[in-house]
Amino acid sequence: MILTHSDTRERALLVALDQKGKNETSVDESLIELKELAESAGAEVIGSAVQRLAAPTAQYFIGPGKALELAAEGKRQGANLIIFDDELSPAQSRNLERLFGAKIVDRTELILDIFAQRAKSREGKLQIELAQLQYLLPRLTHMWTHLSRQKGGIGLRGPGETQLEVDRRRVQEKIAKLQRELEQVRRQRATQREGRRRFQWPIVAIVGYTNAGKSTLLNTLTGANVESRDMLFATLDPTTRRLPLTPTLNVLMTDTVGFLRKLPIHLVDAFRATLEEVQEADLILHVVDASHPQVESQIKAVESILADLSVIHKPRMTVLNKSDLVVHPGHLEFLKHGQEYAIAVSCITGQGIEELKQALAVKVWRTAVHFEIRVPNEHARMIARLHEVSDIFSRRYEEGSFVAEVRIPIRFLTEFEQYFLRK
Predict the structure, then answer these.
(1) What global pTM score does this model have?
(2) Domain boundary among 78, 98, 117
(3) Which domain holds residue 381?
(4) CB neighbours (10 Å) of residue 140?
(5) Least confident of 92-101, 268-277, 314-323, 327-336
(6) What is the CATH number for 81?
(7) Which range, of 152-166, 223-237, 267-281, 355-369, averages the lowest pLDDT?
(8) For residues 24 and 261, is the Cβ–Cβ distance under 8 A?
(9) Could you tell me how far CA 30 lies from the centroid of its own chain?
């Protein structure tokens, strides 16, 4: 844990590597975000440093000379926590800890710590524990070899290796147990989704960069009471609420965990049960903090994760949130450029909320297809399925078949393709 006592904050020095054009975003932007992450975890940031190198070094990640310089600077400023902006290898962490005489944390470990602090539900805690153990497992060897060398090694090598194998097996067993429990969670979520589909209501997944205002928007639209605070990863657990858009059209709005640049792969894997809500959605609502200085790079980061989840081509709308904080109105028009649907809103002032609801109704309606269908009477199971998932506007029986004019969500089309008469 970064925060060790309620009244004592650890003093953190941030370190980043500028790999001469290889970084996905500017180092300055990444350091600003790292500072926010560190403060969210409870640390006091006392300084930062950047080194330009073509590639990380095997020993210290940064160059040896820079490492010695920062170790002296850290001791001078009383830093007891050194946070690196990229994931470190176990050997690099061990070498840096020796040199600095302070706790060494990389970006992945920092994010895992924040998630561990914020997780409230059983599902969230399971996901975080799994990610932490997956992060720990490859580091066990170096932890024990480091201990062996400190003690001299020869007399302790056998017991050390034995203990390492014991610890590795325990961690692997725990990982397997958590994976089984999360598989049960996935099945429960699938059952919940099937239950929601019985209402034939389209599903809208709210996604966006962390602290873009997703939970606040859900609260504003549906009257939900999801915790929303001005901090990174204020909420981790998905929440689903009904939103009436017209007298005859309801949608289910699902809030999801916030995205982040350099999101640890351990977290993406652990949160797959949650992220399936995005994959199952009929429409994705991408919430953007239009007032953020790095808004464009945040948009790209979210789109990259959506691509990784294979949902980038799903119907999508962009919500330019916090538009009341945008100083130059032309900036909103610039952000709208190239977006099929982009609406500026403010959850604080209410600006654009009604326009958003109207646009949602239009967009959701277009995520379904109207066509005429003919199903032979002997295919009773498919006729029952049609009643379950579609809106039926007219029906008749002719020539041993059930013929109907229907509106059906796109995600169910492949089930009925053989029965289409006219799209």
Answers:
(1) 0.73
(2) 117
(3) 368-422
(4) 17
(5) 268-277
(6) 3.40.50.11060
(7) 152-166
(8) yes
(9) 17
